[in-house]
């Protein structure tokens, strides 16, 4: 299996502080990773490196075989190979665009613009991805009028539109109600188990949001890797407690995970 992402001793330093601190991590083709960690741990910073939008201050980051900051690497060729769904992207998209337009513009590497002649085949693909994310009833709705959950599902459909080799999801279930979360987890589970779906990395704060089909976990705290490896081996009560800084018990229930704090003595 080839490497989709290979970080070697990567640090991201801002104002003298390492937001990501000497991280070495490799993601192989077909793996589906969860990044878990408390607020401010450096999860989004790490995802920004993986998306090629942030260069390491130290160390090397190789994404889909391209090493950032080396002469042979053109990030403008690399970026369309990476799908990214997160709040930062939502803010860049025009609120007046319809849901279908929002997804379609991704095929042309744009956030806006409806003057282009779109190919039928692209429109069919956009409709198919939106259908897969349960958004068929919203094709003509303006993006800015969507609920949090609907927006998140649209962004995932949009990220899939370029047929990425690597899909990055930044807290896709944040802000969703219980039904919305479970619906999204089910859809992400279907995607994660699809053998032709891209390699995936999902940032989350909650083990309950880990969809079946995800295979590995990276736990970070204060920019440092605390644990990295297969979920069954690394998602333990001990690691989770160290990661979040309080005693936690994690359990696997069927093909899902749940965690809770130990009662105070
Ligand atoms: N440009 C910057 N300059 C200085 N500090 C920054 C900068 N960007 C982020 N930080 C800090 O880096 C740390 C890590 O931020 P990051 O967004 O990666 O954390 P996170 O794990 O995604 O957090 P959350 O779970 O709250 O979203 C935070 O303490 C944040 O305040």
From TrEMBL:
Q: Name one Pfam family in it.
A: ABC_tran
Q: Which domain of life is it from?
A: Bacteria
Q: Which SMART domains match?
A: AAA
Give every ABC transporter domain span: 5-247
Q: What keywords does the record list, in alphabetical order?
A: ATP-binding, Nucleotide-binding
GO molecular function terms here? Answer: ATP binding; ATP hydrolysis activity
Gene3D superfamilies found in the cross-reference section: P-loop containing nucleotide triphosphate hydrolases
Q: Does the keyword Nucleotide-binding apply?
A: yes
Record's PANTHER family?
SKFA PEPTIDE EXPORT ATP-BINDING PROTEIN SKFE
Q: What is this protein called?
A: Iron complex transport system ATP-binding protein
Print the organism lineage. Bacteria, Bacillati, Actinomycetota, Actinomycetes, Kitasatosporales
């Amino acid at each position: 299996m080839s490497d989709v992402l290979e970080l070697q001793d990567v640090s991201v330093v801002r104002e003298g502080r390492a937001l990501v601190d000497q991280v070495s991590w490799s993601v192989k083709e077909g793996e589906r990773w969860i990044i878990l960690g408390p607020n401010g741990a450096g999860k989004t910073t790490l995802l920004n490196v993986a998306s090629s939008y942030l260069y390491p201050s130290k160390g090397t980051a190789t994404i889909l075989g391209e090493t950032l900051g080396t002469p042979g690497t053109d990030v403008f060729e690399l970026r369309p190979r990476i799908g990214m769904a997160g709040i930062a992207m939502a803010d860049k998209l025009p609120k007046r665009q319809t849901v279908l337009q929002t997804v379609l513009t991704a095929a042309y590497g744009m956030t806006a613009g409806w003057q282009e002649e779109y190919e039928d085949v692209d429109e069919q693909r956009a409709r198919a991805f939106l259908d897969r994310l349960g958004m068929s009833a919203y094709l003509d709705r303006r993006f800015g009028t969507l609920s949090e959950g609907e927006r998140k599902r649209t962004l995932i459909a949009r990220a899939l539109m370029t047929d990425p080799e690597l899909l990055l999801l930044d807290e896709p279930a944040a802000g969703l109600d219980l039904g919305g979360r479970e619906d999204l987890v089910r859809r992400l589970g279907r995607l994660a188990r699809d053998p032709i779906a891209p390699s995936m990395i999902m940032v989350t704060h909650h083990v309950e949001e880990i969809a079946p089909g995800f295979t590995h976990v990276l736990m970070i705290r204060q920019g440092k890797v605390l644990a990295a490896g297969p979920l069954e081996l690394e998602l333990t009560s001990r690691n989770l407690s160290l990661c979040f800084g309080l005693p936690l018990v994690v359990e696997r229930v069927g093909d899902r995970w749940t965690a809770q704090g130990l009662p105070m003595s």
